[in-house]
Design brief:
With 278 residues, this protein is an alpha+beta fold. The protein contains five helices and 14 strands. The chain has a single domain, classed as Extracellular Endonuclease, subunit A (Extracellular Endonuclease, Chain A, 3-Layer(aba) Sandwich), CATH 3.40.570. Helix content is 13%, strand content 27%. About 3% of the residues have low confidence.
């Protein structure tokens, strides 16, 4: 007997609406998996956005498979598959983190674990991670512990910033920045925070690298940014996530932040989770 079709991300997972981001003017393909969904951009061969609901109360430990595969619902030529990652220092970076959808019944958890290893849920990232990337990788755990209420439930949206000037490599434009928006309930109301990971090359001209070599990716830097900034960078409509932001955009005429990309994070203590004064 075949497994049931995955229901995908539940936009009412928190009990308030957190809809999947949308992208106007660019063809996209919505793909549902177990407890998460992706919004695939065939022209870039990568996801424009992913969404997952995390039930912290029923998370399970499942053995990692590393069995990466193409999604049969999308033509192979419209996915960044093994040809991008073979014989180089690029990692298949999970967009929906492997552990996040692994909850529920044992069968659900196993399916979710397997589903995260679709190439439609991956994007190329530098193989050498520094402390900032460890901060990025642990954000969901930190936010789950501080989610406020609703039995430690969290919704996380993640994706690459698919910029027009991303450097080319093996027929793919490699994204240099990644974003994440977390949504949770606090006092029964929706609250959101947004983050930007930057691996922009720090040295050299990517056009001068040896043919066949990936561009030099710089050290990871993590920033907390206004949710609206993610929409500006990606063109995504983030719906009610913007108004619920705990780090709202500066008021017109207000001084620009010291860091052009937002609030630089060096530890979890730097994250703003309390609504700023208006």
């Amino acid at each position: 007997m075949s497994s049931p079709a995955p229901a995908g991300f539940d936009p009412d997972f928190l009990g308030v609406a957190t809809p999947m981001p949308t992208l106007s003017g660019t063809p996209t393909v919505p793909l549902a998996y177990t407890h998460f969904s992706t919004l695939h951009r065939p022209d870039r061969r990568l996801a424009a956005a992913t969404a997952v609901g995390i039930d912290g109360a029923t998370l399970r430990s499942v053995e990692r498979s590393d069995d990466w595969r193409l999604d049969e619902r999308v033509p192979a030529g419209e996915q960044a598959g093994e040809d991008v990652y073979a014989d180089n220092d690029l990692d298949r970076g999970h967009l929906v983190r492997r552990n996040d959808p692994v909850w529920g019944t044992p069968e659900e958890a196993e399916r979710a674990n397997t589903d995260t290893f679709h190439y439609t849920n991956a994007a190329p990232q530098a193989a050498d991670f520094n402390q900032d990337h460890e901060l990025w990788a642990g954000l969901e755990d930190y936010l789950l512990d501080n989610a406020g209420d609703n039995d430690r439930r969290l919704v996380v949206f993640t994706g690459p910033v698919l910029a027009d000037d991303d450097p080319p490599y093996r027929g793919l434009a490699l994204p240099l920045r990644f974003w994440k928006v977390a949504a949770f309930l606090d006092g029964g109301a929706l609250a959101t925070t947004a983050y930007l990971l930057d691996q922009t090359p720090q040295v050299g001209d990517v056009t001068e690298r040896a043919e066949g070599d990936p561009p030099p990716l710089g050290p990871f830097r993590t920033f907390q940014v206004p949710v609206a900034r993610v929409g500006e960078l990606t063109g995504l409509d983030l719906g009610p996530l913007v108004a619920a932001d705990r780090l709202p955009a500066p008021a017109p005429g207000a001084p620009a932040p010291a860091e052009a990309d937002g609030r630089r994070l060096s530890s979890y203590a730097d994250i703003v989770l309390t609504r700023a004064a208006r």
